[in-house]
Amino acid sequence: MKITIVGTGYVGLVTGVCFAEVGIDVCCVDVDKEKIVKLKKGISPIYEQGLEEMLLNNIERGRITFSDSLKEGMKDAEVIFSAVGTPPDEDGSADLRYVLDVAHEIGRNMNEYVLVVTKSTVPVGTAEKVRVAIEEELTARGVDIKFDIASNPEFLKEGTAINDFMYPERIVVGVSSIRGQEVMARLYKPFTLNGHPIIFMDIPSAEMTKYAANSMLATRISFMNDIANLCELVGADVNAVRKGIGSDTRIGSKFLYPGIGYGGSCFPKDVKALIKTASDNNYKMGVLSAVEEVNETQKSLMFHKFMAHFDGKVKGMTVGFWGLAFKPGTDDMREAPSLVMIEKLRKAGVNIRAYDPVSMPESKRRIGNAITYCKDMYETAYKVDALFLITEWTEFRFPDWKKIASNLKNKVFFDGRNLYEKKELQQEGFTYYGVGL
User: Fold this and answer.
1) Above 70 in pLDDT, residue 294?
2) Active site residue 27
3) Topology of the domain covering 2-200
4) Which of the following is catalytic: 27, 231, 266, 374?
């Protein structure tokens, strides 16, 4: 079975490599010729644990190829996945230009039956727009070629994407025909042999499932951050509260960790897009609007604590950042709280030293040398006025606090992820600020 995947970003590349790993013939297509040249050499454009090794293995075995031509890449393909970007427009809606461009090109070049599957996160109704675009091209060519459409949203977590794809909690597929369902069942059979469920449904429901899932997770995060902020005001400990409510099986403990807000490529974009979809249908998503508002406020939480601690007299100070990525396990800095912090601190006249084990090249690409990059967590802490934990990377879990304390100008620590014990740092002479403590 041969499949084609259009788009070699995070979703497209992980999907292609994982399908190749189970023996499927995969061709990944991207208009970025430079990226294709690197991929042919086994160089991944993104960081994801285990991805580059799996990529090289499948290139060597001839199970995955790369092309900058969709016309060439889709030859003999039974399934074409569209995994191109859907960046947010200014009004929060998903920009579908790339999705529809791919649909038109498929219609211009297909010569036999194919199942066209939307893998990108797209609003409800997008698959129908894809169908119309393909039919327009077939009509213009004067040909009658059968095809089906489907929606197959991804549920990959950055940092564990390979494991998420190979051992999925569920596979959601929206189909419009029996033939399309049979093709998708055959394609995903290697992933369902161990009991992982594949859930077939109508296409609009599949499109909505993706947005609903991410919005629910974002809601849990913002809810817990809201509770954390109230805990500080009333003298409660959010960690105790989290354990208390998380032990209820109806609630569970996942995504109930307070911090400095969510970021990344999914949650912010998907929450905005779902709010916009509701607005387009004359409905207000009251809960999600609040979720977004809380999250944006939370990203500035530690900045305000920093300003309060020093009575606003911070111009000329230098602070250290442990972490830059929006979460550990990835180099992704899209919508990262660190970017909000950096902007606010720099406007206040504060210099920033930072270390992240993976995302410093991405930070340099985004903001250049606006901050100073360090070789490790200890160099970051050298002669700074305060330290911030931004991203809870594993290597930050057991610092040598005595070594750090001896190098600091002021022993002030802002823990944006509640990674450390307040009492432990206080015993080392630190003034400690957490979230909801």
Assistant:
1) yes
2) no
3) Rossmann fold (3.40.50)
4) 266
